[in-house]
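Hello Y.,

Per our agreement to keep a running log of every chain we model this quarter, I'm adding this entry. I've kept the format consistent with earlier entries: sequence first, then predicted structure.
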Amino acid sequence: MINVVRSLVFYAGYFTAMLLIGVLFLPIAPFLPLAGRYRLLNLYNYFLVVWFRIACGVRYDIQGRENIPSGPCVIQANHQCEWETVFLQVMKPPVCTVLKQELLRFPIFGWGLRLLRPISLDRSKPARAMKQVLTQGVERLGTGLSVLIFPEGTRVSPGVRKRYNKSGSVVACRAGVPVLPVAHNAGERWPGRHWVKHPGVLRVRIGAPIETSGRTPDEVLEDVEAWIEGQLQEISEVPRPASR
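Predicted structure for the entry above:
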């Protein structure tokens, strides 16, 4: 029962903050340069990271911040829930996120996303989506933005393993930037398909950048997957399935 109450309190703050951001900041944001726009709208993500900890009794154990490069990179992380999409925005701003285009249709939330130049994909057209990721991903990196690509493509519940997609590794190799691997167990605290949150330790591991110079995307992807899955074996409370 206490988790239900905590979750209700969390969502009260979640939607109140979204409404305030929409009323106070969205009318201003389009007139700012991208960097200023990002700093302004990213205040909501900073709030959510802190509010989730306070309202839901979650403790953060984040290791590896010293591995975050100063220049642009391709961030690749396992995808379990909404929390990591929020945290990764504040971990290395500014970052361009690869996401499904349906998210841009949500009032306030989607309007804010549009202003941050995401790479929005129509997942019903996979060939076109892949071309879009490769073209726009390299272009965003060239402007100094980092790019966030979830190699699993969609949310995957804790304890479930899905094939990794190499689009992020291809983008990194073409742009000549490193891949920054991130592993976490956020789905154990913030279930992807249920609104009730769970207290406990949310662990994040940020790995050393994986260099792409002179390497193929398949080689880079193999390193990314091995590192993320190895970390998940250590930090997950839900047992991981055997390697493919």
